[in-house]
Amino acid sequence: MVIDEGWSQLPEHWRSAFRQAWAAYVADTIPVGAVVVDPHGVIAAEARNRIFDAGAPPPGQLAGSWLAGSWLAHAELNAIAQIDAERSRMAEGWAVYTTLEPCPMCAGAITVAFRGRVTVGYASGDPTSSGLRVLTETDIGRRRQWQIQKLRGPFAVFADLLLAVYTVEARPTSLTAARYREPPWWPLIETTGAVIARERDRGASVEQVLATIWAAIEHAQEAPVIDSSSEAL
Predict the structure, then answer these.
(1) Which residues does 171 contact at the CB level (< 8 Å), separation at least 6?
(2) Backbone angles phi, psi at 221, to 5 degrees
(3) How far apart are CA 233 and CA 222, in angstroms?
(4) pTM over 0.90
(5) What number is the average pLDDT over the span 204-227?
């Protein structure tokens, strides 16, 4: 499979999420993108992480920077915040897709924002702050019907790799950085890290970045994660 074929076959909500994650990386904040899809399968909102982004966010989204702002400026929260409260409860069947497994805060926000049947899709697992268990550990969560989907393949590797490259550079003493200094990620970071940073600095799109490193990630092995792929919780 070549990159053009793989990218064109990727559902639009995932392509949008990856574009948002790349935009976050370009803005020097945590590279996570999220998309909300309505019950009719239409993308209703998209957003990115803004915790360390000094720029002003779009109206209705949370800002963040080193000097001010909020640690709450996660991609999922910024996407959900764009959905009108009445609209979110008019029908069940909403979905949230994110390039990084939702943290407990974001999992709680998904639980509160939508009702009935809800899909949560993620590309990269997050063992340091996994929030998926939050979905069923509250009374309100147990009233939902959860469908959890884990993206697989090269694009899932890219989601992990992008977070790895950012974290090792920006937050080298963190638990997440320590995870990425171990196999299978460290050899891949050494191979592609400088390439990803160079493509960012020259203003490349996420499609161009993927094309550049495709050979390195196409056959890379994803780190094992515990998930309930395509299974209702």
Answers:
(1) 177
(2) -95, 130
(3) 23
(4) yes
(5) 81
| Pairing verdict, β 33-37 and 94-100 | antiparallel
Distance CA 169, CA 154 (A): 22
Q: What is the 3-state secondary structure (H, E, C) of the chain?
A: CCHHHHHHHCCHHHHHHHHHHHHHHHCCCCCCEEEEECCCCCEEEEEECCCCCCCCCCCCCCCECCCCECCCCCHHHHHHCCCCHHHHCCCCCEEEEEEECCCHHHHHHHHHHCCCEEEEEEEECCCCCCCHHHHHCCHHHHCCEEEEEECCCHHHHHHHHHHHHHHHHHCCCCHHHHHHCCCCHHHHHHHHHHHHHHHHHCCCCHHHHHHHHHHHHHCCCCCCCCCCCCEEC
Handedness of CA 100, 145, 92, 86 (dihedral sign): negative
**18-30 burial, b if ≥16 CB within 10 A, otherwise e?**
bbbbbbbbbbbbb
Q: What pLDDT score does 219 carry?
A: 83
Closest C-alpha among 11, 28, 27, 74 to residue 48: 74
Token reading at 181: 């200094």
Tell which wins on pLDDT, 221 or 73: 73
CA distances from 106 to 11, 96, 112, 147, 173 (A): 22, 10, 10, 16, 24
Tens digit of each residue's pLDDT (9 = 90 or more) over 55-112: 788 888 887 765 556 889 999 999 999 999 999 988 999 999 999 999 999 999 999 9
> Looking at the chain, how many residues does it have?
233
- At 62 the pLDDT is 82
pLDDT digits (tens, 9 = 90+) for 141-165: 999 999 999 999 999 999 999 999 9
